[in-house]
């Protein structure tokens, strides 16, 4: 990979600085990710009384800020306004899932079924058809993708799914199958890597969405990073809605120690890195 970059961007060796090998988005990503230090600060804030007081006053300030901005949907008071009709019956279960979706953070520890996990993965990033169905070329998936390049990968961390050995899996979308990468219990590792440890209590599966940026940046250069993140949002939402429709709870999570999750899944954190987690399980 580094060699490919060397060929692609010869100017980047000027001065021999390693950072010049990186694309801008790689630098930005590195600068903005959550680290073990963030997790340690969070832990101290919870356990050290002085830090806890500081955290509470920071939370109060944040609350005041929310009160000022959170409910501030813009209003164009001088423009004509018309009330909109209610939802049509046609929307059926989709309307219910949209209405009832909430981030669920308390799980009962009960397993989900393999059928439920399969449905979640299919709704999130499954192959739903082909642009050229006869030759089964140019697959299309449950979510839109910039340029149809599908830069994401999906890794279910299985804690409690009926009929599955706990461990790290990869969702192979083209055959709608799971590949077991590393068997083993994951509860402790999750508690270590989630900034909000309570989320590690009782979920059935944590779906890791990773970005393999080159798939998109090869066509869109720096914009490929943006498109990859947007696509992760699509998949996260599809998973959240599917979980709600299946009667499960789900919480989207950006607060995790990225290097820790990467190590757990076996990602290098440069060419492919964990972007977004969906913690899913039976509600408490
Ligand atoms: C990008 C993103 C990251 C999030 N990260 C976390 C997180 O790390 N931990 C958490 O408990 N909730 C997380 N959430 C959930 C939000 O807190 C939640 O969506 C918000 O409070 C609105 O509540 P609702 O989802 O129930 O409507 C995240 C949501 C989004 C969209």
How is the topology of this model organized?
Blueprint: H1 2-8, H2 24-32, H3 36-47, H4 49-69, H5 92-100, H6 114-125, E1 127-132, E2 137-141, E3 152-158, E4 167-172, E5 177-183, H7 187-193, E6 205-212, H8 214-220, H9 223-245, E7 249-253, H10 258-265, E8 272-281
Antiparallel strand pairs: 1-2, 3-4, 3-6, 4-5, 6-8, 7-8
Helix pairs in contact: 3-4, 5-9, 6-9, 7-10, 8-9
The protein binds flavin mononucleotide.
How many distinct beta strands? 8
Q: Which oligomerization state do the chains in this entry correspond to?
A: single chain
Strand order of the largest sheet: 5-4-3-6-8-7
Distance between the termini: 45 Å
Radius of gyration over alpha carbons?
21 Å
Ligand catalogue:
flavin mononucleotide
Question: What does the model show?
Answer:
- The chain has 284 residues and is α+β, with helices and mostly antiparallel strands.
- A 6-stranded antiparallel beta sheet has the order 5-4-3-6-8-7, sandwiched between helices. The protein has a two-stranded antiparallel sheet with strand order 1-2.
- Helix 3 crosses helix 4 and helix 7 packs antiparallel against helix 10.
- It is globular and about 65 Å long.
- Bound molecules: flavin mononucleotide.
Keywords:
6-stranded antiparallel sheet; globular; disordered N terminus; alpha+beta; two-stranded antiparallel ribbon; 284 residues; 10 helices
């Amino acid at each position: 990979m580094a060699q490919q970059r060397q060929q692609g961007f010869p100017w980047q060796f000027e001065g021999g600085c390693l950072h010049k090998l990186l694309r801008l988005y790689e630098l930005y990503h590195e600068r903005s990710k959550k680290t073990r230090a963030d997790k340690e600060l969070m832990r101290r804030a919870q356990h050290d009384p002085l830090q806890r007081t500081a955290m509470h006053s920071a939370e109060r300030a944040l609350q005041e800020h929310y009160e000022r901005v959170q409910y501030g949907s813009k209003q164009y008071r001088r423009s004509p306004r018309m009330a909109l009709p209610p939802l049509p019956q046609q929307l059926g279960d989709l309307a219910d899932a949209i209405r009832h979706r909430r981030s669920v953070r308390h799980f009962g520890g009960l397993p989900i079924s393999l059928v439920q996990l399969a449905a979640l993965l299919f709704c999130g990033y499954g192959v739903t058809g082909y642009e050229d169905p006869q030759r089964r070329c140019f697959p299309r998936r449950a979510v839109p993708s910039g340029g149809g390049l599908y830069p994401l990968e999906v890794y279910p961390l299985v804690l409690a799914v009926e009929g599955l050995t706990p461990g790290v899996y990869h969702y192979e979308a083209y055959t709608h199958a799971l590949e077991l990468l590393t068997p083993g219990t994951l509860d402790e590792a999750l508690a270590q890597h989630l900034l909000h440890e309570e989320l590690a209590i009782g979920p059935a599966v944590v779906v890791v969405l990773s970005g393999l940026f080159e798939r998109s940046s090869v066509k869109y250069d720096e914009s490929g990073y943006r498109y990859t993140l947007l696509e992760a949002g699509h998949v996260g939402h599809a998973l959240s809605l599917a979980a709600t429709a299946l009667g499960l709870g789900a919480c989207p999570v950006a607060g995790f120690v990225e290097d820790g999750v990467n190590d757990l899944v076996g990602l290098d954190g440069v060419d492919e890195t964990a972007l977004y987690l969906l913690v899913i399980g039976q509600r408490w």
